[in-house]
């Protein structure tokens, strides 16, 4: 059976790409030499957070976290994302940039993230040594994902939408003709 698109490798990127193509109605085959998440994805700590000083990264991270939270509903599998929260702390050298980034993420991007003054931090965590801490950034939605379950969630959701999944299959070479893939 021919496909319009062949995706090689079923790490989280290949699995997600296959799902999105299949969900868009494009015929797609995913080819994996082993099993989903057998490579670097399966070894990932898979921490997921919104706090980045660069807007492009925080926006990309927010979309990724949203997909991880929705994955059980589309992939008919277990919850893969676990929120644990994160307190980021910095001294004066980064305080202004971090506070501006947190406010941007909260106010403009809709992220759940808050600036905490040293006084509030000391009241909430009296055992913390506050020397040299200028601000805290509290991100309650910080968490981690199970990389194996997340990848398999995308693979299963892609299969349910018509994608062909070929495991234990190697790609020997990619044939081209006229600057296009021919086989």
Automatic annotation (TrEMBL):
Pfam families named among the record's database cross-references: DAO
Record keywords: Oxidoreductase
InterPro entries registered for this protein in UniProt: FAD-dep_OxRdtase (IPR006076), FAD/NAD-bd_sf (IPR036188)
GO molecular function, a single term: oxidoreductase activity
The protein's name: FAD dependent oxidoreductase domain-containing protein
Gene Ontology CC terms: cytoplasm
PANTHER family xrefs: FAD-DEPENDENT OXIDOREDUCTASE DOMAIN-CONTAINING PROTEIN 1, SARCOSINE DEHYDROGENASE-RELATED
FAD dependent oxidoreductase domain residues: 4-182
């Amino acid at each position: 059976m021919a496909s319009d698109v062949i995706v090689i490798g079923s790490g989280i990127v290949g699995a997600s790409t296959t799902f999105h193509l299949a969900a868009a109605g494009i015929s797609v085959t995913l080819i994996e030499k082993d099993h989903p998440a057998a490579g670097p994805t399966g070894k990932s700590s898979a921490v997921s957070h919104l706090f980045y000083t660069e807007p492009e990264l925080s926006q990309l991270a927010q979309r990724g976290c949203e997909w991880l939270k929705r994955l059980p509903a589309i992939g008919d599998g277990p919850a893969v994302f676990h929120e644990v929260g994160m307190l980021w702390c910095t001294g004066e050298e980064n305080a202004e940039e971090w506070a501006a980034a947190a406010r941007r993420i909260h106010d403009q991007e809709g992220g759940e993230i808050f600036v905490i003054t040293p006084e509030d931090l000391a009241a909430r965590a009296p055992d913390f040594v506050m020397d040299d801490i200028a601000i805290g950034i509290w991100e309650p939605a910080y968490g981690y994902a199970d990389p194996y379950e997340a990848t398999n969630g995308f693979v299963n959701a892609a299969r349910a939408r018509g994608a062909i999944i070929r495991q234990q299959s190697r790609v020997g070479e990619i044939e081209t003709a006229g600057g296009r893939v021919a086989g």
